[in-house]
Amino acid sequence: MTASDSSIAIARHAAKAAADKIAHDIVALDVSERLALADVFLIASAPSERQVNAIVDGIEEELAKQDLRPTRREGRSGGRWVLLDYSDIVIHVQHEEDRVFYALERLWKDCPVVDLQLGEDASAKASAGSDAE
Question: Which CATH number describes the domain made up of 5-132?
């Protein structure tokens, strides 16, 4: 069993929204084989709490256009690690320090990576954002 096409499409929309807000290291993992409660984990990071919250806002706005609302949201007030649960897709937006410390990709390293089809534009935006800091 692999992630559904609809879950992958949602992850791609969320990843694009995160990239538009200059999220760093955007990665999606197909956790459907290992986890019964979700198909995809989307992970992104930012260098500040303010930017973490801006990324979260961008993702929520983009997915709301498709009538999608998170069933659960955690960590918004701290801005260090925000979790958005859209049932089939769980989005983690983390402060860069927390991402290194918790290393979700290492915990789920046996899961296949989902091609987010972000292209060169998103990579260039992320690089430009980190160069500006």
Answer: 3.30.460.10
Q: Which residue carries 């992320």 as its tokens?
A: 126
For the whole model, what pTM was predicted? 0.87
> What are the residue ranges spanned by the domains of the chain?
5-132
SS3 123: helix
Give the chain's end-to-end CA distance (angstroms, integer). 42
Residue 11 token pair: 């992850």
| Kind of pairing between the strands at 81-85 and 40-46 | unpaired
Rounded CA separation 5/26 (Å): 19
pLDDT (tens digit per residue) in 30-47: 999 998 889 999 999 999
